[in-house]
Amino acid sequence: QKEVEQNSGPLSVPEGAIASLNCTYSDRVSQSFFWYRQYSGKSPELIMSIYSNGDKEDGRFTAQLNKASQYVSLLIRDSQPSDSATYLCAVNVGAGRRALTFGSGTRLQVQP
Amino acid sequence: DARVTQTPRHKVTEMGQEVTMRCQPILGHNTVFWYRQTMMQGLELLAYFRNRAPLDDSGMPKDRFSAEMPDATLATLKIQPSEPRDSAVYFCASGKDRGLYNEQFFGPGTRLTVL
Hints:
By secondary structure, chain A is mainly β. Chain A is built from no helices and 11 strands.
């Protein structure tokens, strides 16, 4: 079992729809969770961080964390073609560890 | 606009040559990470520094890779000798170590091709 798992996609949604991206992790003691967006040929860009159970909203983005289920998700409301990218889930796997373990990423395509 | 900078952005070299990649972390950040990204393996940690001290280099092939922080504004990653399987994009990231709240910000990367 991979430490951080994501569906590779592509996930295709129409413009204006809600895109839902999911991630599961294996280590129960993990405490810090991040979503990065990566455009083709570019570096990962941090878009959300979440540390406690529940929802965290920032503009059109909402991160959701459920530690009991070891599940973190990212919702993108009113999806735009400019949101088309690969979304990487990253976790500080293990207690006190600062380095990130990344999922393989989910490719999102927003159709105009 | 504070950013992580990396040089060179692209490097093409021949097998057996030494490669040095440099990273300038964001001013005030005390953690520096080196990651490597390939299509097959995704993003993987190579090394990690806090306050210039190496804390984790378990992902780095020890026989050919080395990472250092000569000072707080410079981190280096060296490969000697380079091999074709080292072809990848190498990212440097930096952050402030605030316990749980350790967001990391990536540089633009060095795209390495070893022929």
